Amino acid sequence: MKSESETSPRNKSTYKWLDGSKLMQAFWANNQPDGRRMCVFSNAEEEWEDGDCHHKRPYACFTKG
After folding, report:
1. Which of 30, 37, 39, 56 could form a disulfide bond with 50, CB atoms 3.0-4.6 angstroms apart?
2. In this structure, which topology does domain 1-65 adopt according to CATH?
3. Residue 37 contacts residue 2 (beta carbons within 8 Å)
4. pTM for this one?
């Protein structure tokens, strides 16, 4: 997931999935997004935080099959 704006957003509604679809449900941690980063990751409590897009993190993908 990534923000659709070129500057870091503080508004949770500005985040979209990479395919451009709207974010219908979110699991933000307290005080997140804090508006300093453009991408999102899941923390140890499985809550979302905004983060740097250039950091590599483990991920899982889901496809309809």
Report:
1. 37
2. Mannose-Binding Protein A; Chain A (3.10.100)
3. no
4. 0.61
